[in-house]
Amino acid sequence: MLLTIDVGNTHTVLGLFDGEDIVEHWRISTDARRTADELAVLLNGLMGMHPLLGDELGDGIDGIAVCATVPSVLHELREVTRRHYGDVPAVLVEPGVKTGVPILFDNPKEVGADRIINAVAANELYGGPAIVVDFGTATTFDAISARGEYVGGVIAPGIEISVEALGVRAAQLRKIEVARPRSVIGKNTVEAMQAGIIYGFAGQVDGVTRRMARELADDPDDVTVIATGGLAPMVLGESSVIDEHEPWLTLIGLRLVYERNVSRL
User: Fold this and answer.
1) Which of 8, 31, 86, 263 is buried most deeply by CB count within 10 Å?
2) Is pLDDT above 60 for 171?
3) Residue 190: which residues within 8 A CB-CB, separation 6 or more?
4) How confident is the model at residue 96 (pLDDT cuts 50, 70, 90)?
5) Which of 37, 62, 114, 206 is an active site residue?
């Protein structure tokens, strides 16, 4: 089986693939202070929960693919693969790794690995032109051309960041649960904040993607908009432009990149 690990700024998502099928997944908090040994213990506990894997760390794992937006975690995971997974082939996404997606960016090294991996999966699953909207710590919008090129994107504050900022900077407001309110017009402070978050972000998604689509294709209707990320379900029902929802887009992209590189290891 292939173990895929997507390290984000707030959460780390792990997926276990049997061929092309994802058979198990986990979401844990990202902690840049964890050492390689601590990560190995954590992985051992998670892997032990699956009936198709053995009791020892690495049993049943045929390959590992990792992308990370936190350099310190990537460093520790590199040590995990070296010390605890022995001869298991591992692909850590970084410069020099073959993705199959040309990066048309002023400085390609500035593009987060997860954004490139999302572009790989979006192009494979839906073709271009496409826009990936990833609802994570930041809300990112990434554009893929009709020729499968990564052409750039947009970065905006994420939903959770916005909620925390309101609670910290506004004296009479507090951190709230991100949930859909009864109506757009809130009847109390919590509902008013929830409406601002849910419908505000839906409006942001619609506005940004429409503008991007006009630049990306002669006919904006030809552009496929794909949503992913842990908070995507909160906005899906309120956005009018999202065509597809693929919660495991990054993990699928990691599987594809692993397959494109494993023969070179």
Assistant:
1) 8
2) no
3) 176, 181
4) confident
5) 114
Report which listed range, 84-88, 228-232, 251-255, is most confident.
Answer: 251-255
Sheet holding 2-7, edge to edge: 21-29, 11-18, 2-7, 63-68, 90-92
Count Cα atoms within 13 angstroms, Cβ side, for 42.
Answer: 19
Amino acid (one-letter) located at 108? P
The pairing of strands 21-29 and 11-18 is: antiparallel
Q: What percent of the chain has pLDDT over 70?
A: 92
- Give the DSSP letter of residue 77: H
pLDDT, tens digit, for every residue of 11-68?
999 999 999 999 999 999 999 999 999 999 998 888 877 766 655 555 678 999 999 9
Q: What type of residue sits at position 57?
A: L
Question: What pLDDT is recorded for position 87?
Answer: 84
Residue 101: which residues within 8 A CB-CB, separation 6 or more? 116, 119, 120, 123, 144, 148, 149, 150
In the annotation, is 222 catalytic? no
∠213-214-218 over CA atoms, to 5°?
A: 105
Q: CA-to-CA distance for 115 and 245, rounded, in angstroms? A: 16
Q: Do the beta carbons of residue 12 and residue 29 sit within 8 Å? A: yes
> Would you place residue 95 in the very low, low, confident or very high pLDDT band (cuts 50, 70, 90)?
confident
| Rounded distance between C-alpha atoms, residue 234 and residue 202, angstroms | 9
